[in-house]
């Protein structure tokens, strides 16, 4: 595989904003999100419920539901500006160049259509030039590639006759069958038990290894990010608050929110911690974002620093360190932070 640090950019998102108009008020669910995904890279997008991960993902796919609307920003897949495409062109692009692996394949698969036909529908829609007679072999081939046991039998089955892990393998097969540049995996393992989760994560790593596919991996779970991602984008209250290589972010988080997310992970083996911290409080209301830092009310660093006014009066920028890391905190890496550590 290529070195992802020097690989070309597959997805470039700039200043993306999505709003929902709700009975006289406007909720800015995604507020100025920008990031890149390079060829062969697995990028995690992590954050608590409501942080804007799903709405960002839907905006990338051109599927933000009403009353939501993309109000600003640019999304480029290779050299295609997605905002400039017609609905028909976008629909063509989905599946062929950009595909979604849903969180619950059991719910996403059509319950009354056999597995083979469902995989075949994608081929027929996006690859009409493939002769009909060649479809069955191609379907079996892709199902074998994703490790579905006994694919010759499974193609005749309905989704409910497959286990959760097998359903998820079918969803991965449908996502990768046309060799997309970008796979968006939306919490693809949450509905599965732990051993099956590990198998599906390994399958995504295999897909990347074999095809060089880039993956945007959406999750609320830092442990999963640490397991399979190269880089991570940490979302909070509609914005990216930290991004960087996973190893660096997990070993030395720059933003207090990232630190709080990491503190909430139970350790593997070893002695249990004296207390497992959850993050007290709740994110602010997207209909009225606070003027200063959106994490200020819940921030331990701010508390330790004696509640500086700056945190609540001035919104921090997402500052870059020039070496691939970004953080949205007035006091990240500052002398003041060093004192309280
Ligand atoms: N259809 C909708 N109508 C109104 N507001 C919405 C809609 N969908 C999402 N939102 C709002 O957008 C914000 C971001 O939600 P989003 O679903 O993207 O969060 P998330 O990080 O994906 O959370 P989760 O992990 O629970 O899926 C939330 O404040 C949510 O209430």
Automatic annotation (TrEMBL):
Alphabetical UniProt keywords: ATP-binding, Cell membrane, Membrane, Nucleotide-binding, Transport
Primary localization: membrane
Protein name (database record): ABC transporter ATP-binding protein
Keyword Cell membrane listed: yes
Single GO molecular function: ATP binding
Domain ABC transporter: 11-262
SMART domains in alphabetical order: AAA (SM00382)
Keyword S-adenosyl-L-methionine in annotation: no
GO biological process: peptide transport
Family designation: Belongs to the ABC transporter superfamily.
Cellular component terms (Gene Ontology): plasma membrane
Compartments it resides in: Cell membrane
Bilayer topology: Peripheral membrane protein
